[in-house]
Amino acid sequence: MLRAALLLAKKDLLSELKTKQVLATMIIFAGLVILVFSFAFDPANNTTRAVIPGVIWVIIVFAGILGLNRSFISEQRNDTMHGLLIAPMEASSIFLGKFLANFSMIMIVELVSLPFLFLLFDFHILGYFPYFLLVLVIGSFGFISIGTFLAALSANSKSSEMLLPLLLFPVTSPILIGAVQATRIILTNIEKLSSAMAWIQLIAAYDVIFFVLCFILIDYVLEV
Amino acid sequence: MNTNTARKQASLLKTEPVAEKGTLFPKILLGATAVTVLASIYMIFIFSEVEKTMGVVQKIFYFHVSSAWCAFLAFFVTFVCSILYLAKRKRIFDTYAYVSAEIGVVFTSIVLTTGPIWAKSSWNTWWAWEPRLTTTLILWFIYMAYIMIRQMDGVWDKKARLAAVFGILGFIDVPIVFFAIRWWQSKFHPIVFGNGPSQKGGGITHTMLLALLVSIAALTLLYSYLLQKGVNLENMRIKVSQYKEKLREDMEK
Amino acid sequence: MIEIKKLTKQADNKLILRGIDLSIKKGETVAILGPNGAGKSTLLKVLATLIKPSSGHVTINGYDLRKNQMKIKKMMGYLPHSSLLYDHYSPLENLVFFGNVYGIKNVEQKSIDLVREVGLSFFLHEPVKNFSRGMIQRIAIARAIIHEPPLLLLDEPHTGLDQGAINILNNVILSMKEKGTTTLMVTHDFKQATELCDRIIIIKNGKIVDDFRLEEKKLNLVSEKYQLQVEGVS
After folding, report:
1. What is the DSSP letter of A156?
2. What's phi and psi for C23, nearest 5 deg?
3. Distance in angstroms (rounded) separating the CA atoms of residues A151 and A132
4. Does the predicted model carry a pTM greater than 0.90?
């Protein structure tokens, strides 16, 4: 199962490497979000530091949704989704493959855009950097896993681009709350590390519950 | 629900030979609903005492709480019926899940409108980002999304399957949302039952509790009546489209 | 090879297949004819595990279609209307990907051979999106047979092809037939059907109305029977 998933993820990433469509869009979009935020919140102002943790997750969520939207829609051209469905691979490997591809893409986007954000807003990380990475990884993990699942679901609709955010945002609200809180504590107020750890545990629990749930339910979503 | 249209539907049901065996039950349900709703209105406005600090506005609390309870009940029914649908693939479970979700959204809307009215008079703010209120708001969004899935184009069993999956996912999400928001900030909501440690005037007297229980019973009955009615309507709609299809086929022959 | 009993498929309230009983032996090449909307493609999709039947029983090579999907998927090649190819990938990359998915050894060499067989080795590294319909169809058939399936399901494979492409396609099908492949082909092209197939099934309104063997390659026989069933009755 893992082999098929890796093949699929490799296929998606290679095709992304060829066209550079989605990734470029996501990164440029992330840059635009930063720009818009610099208009909305004065970068010279000291209080702006308070909104940075929120901005980080707004970037991840909105850039992520762009990639998620394409993830299953791109399989509709020439009905290649049918090609995967008639191939001897489980629905869960299709989910896992798509998840891996989406997850690596969002990681690349974060890797490129977040340093820019810190640079442009002249933000110095006060906290402990590895914890920040941990929050980024598990927060994106949960967001992308449930996002991949719901993208598969909404791909059945003709207006899936509009449907996906409506499905995704309410369901992922615990992750967004937890990730923003944990990021804020880690970046600005490292003394309260224990409560950040509590948030991280909440996100981790959410990740596990929904990853397992997606694995079980994806069979019903990809059934034709 | 308007009794006139209810009667019309009842007479419609009579002409439909298949549905005749079930006509007694909804009538009893309707009667019970009417009696308990009247009783609860009496209990709320005449029987129970006026709350000391908030005054008459507090009366909205009875419908607020019992609507919230009904909304949760409705979404729980959707959750159970979604699982049953995926397991058994019978259309009736899908119909129940759909109708229940719709009614649940209506009750959630009631909670979301009565909540701010109450909040304005007791906390002096229309909206507070408080766990229960925020969870209800997210709940409303989740089940609006559920209804959006139902509006998708395509054959019914595809829509039923996807909606069932989302119904399960959404319901499991609710407690997590609640805990997340509770951790996030918890300042406002009075702890009504038991001894509220800090909130004065948050307690509840016996007459109030009785009134609350009666109004919960009333709205639960109303919910089951609406559910039954909605499922009936949906079934009739399905039957009509089946007859249409049959007619079309006969014409083709 | 294929046993179908009382197969029905209902979408919304419309019955698309109304009780198909069919038995196909190993190595047979069967053409399915019928007017538009008769349920031919649906039947093929059910066999390809893309559509769940509403009722009835299907076994392929002794495996139940509901229970042993994995085994059936492994031994089936399916060519629908659409090509199932990734647009910005070259033929080689497409075939290598699908070959890997099916777990084929020596996949690169095999893909190159297949592309040569369908006569496109010159375009091995060109992205598929620049190809014409005929070229895409040839790569699509190569994709369908990359794992040498013992069962081949073709949905109107000849539509939109020129004579040269048709010849290449027929050669591929015939060489698969020699290897003992069972082929089911939905088609509107009587000429190709008579040329390739040794059994004809006519479907109308979701039911099999005629089923006969083709001893000699007589085109007239096919069109006569078709006209009798499809146009004569109504």
Report:
1. T
2. -135, 125
3. 27
4. no
Domain annotation covers residue B9: no
pLDDT tens track for A147-205? 999 999 999 888 888 999 999 999 999 999 899 989 988 888 777 888 888 889 999 99
pLDDT in tens, C87-135: 889 999 999 999 999 988 888 999 999 888 888 888 888 888 888 888 8
Residues with Cβ within 8 Å of C63's Cβ and at least 6 positions away in sequence, in order, are C71, C72
Residue A72's domain spans which residues? 2-222
Cross-chain residue pair A171–B153, CB shorter than 8 Å: no
Residue in C11, C13, C15 nearest the CB of B241 = C13
**Adjacent-strand bridge partners of C3:** C23, C59
Most A-contacting residue of C9, C49, C68, C100 (CB-CB within 10 A), to test interface: C100
Q: What is the ipTM of this complex?
A: 0.89
Contact C33, C229 (CB under 8 A): no
Identify the DSSP state of C16: E
Contacting residues of B for C12, CB less than 8 Å apart: 155-156, 241, 245
SS (H, E, C) C158-180: CCCCCHHHHHHHHHHHHHHHHCC
Q: Is C86 an interface residue toward A (CB < 8 Å)? A: yes
- Using a CB-CB cut-off of 8 Å, the residues of chain A touching B162 are 153, 156, 220-221
Residue B23 dihedral angles phi and psi, to the nearest 5°: -80, -25
| Alpha carbon separation from B135 to A128, B82, B177, B184, C4 (Å, rounded) | 32, 21, 6, 12, 52
Report whether C226 contacts C38 (CB < 8 A): no
| DSSP-derived 3-state class of residue C60 | strand
Q: Which residues pair with C203 in a beta bridge?
A: C208
Count how many domains chain B has.
1
Give one DSSP letter per residue of B179-196, joined into a string.
HHHHHH---S----SS--
- The number of residues in chain B equals 253
Determine, yes or no, domain membership for B95.
yes
Short-list A92, A219, A85, CA closest to C48: A85
- Point out the residue among A14, A19, A87 whose CB comes nearest to the CB of C101: A87
User: A166 vs B172: CB contact, 8 Å cut-off?
Assistant: no
Size of interface A-B (CB pairs under 8 A): 78
Residue A22 CB burial class (10 angstroms; 0-12, 13-18, ≥19): buried
Q: Is B44 domain-assigned?
A: yes
Q: Which domain holds residue B37?
A: 24-189+209-244
**Matching residue, tokens 């997210």:** B138
Q: Is residue B145 part of a domain?
A: yes
Nearest Cα residue in chain C from A86:
C73
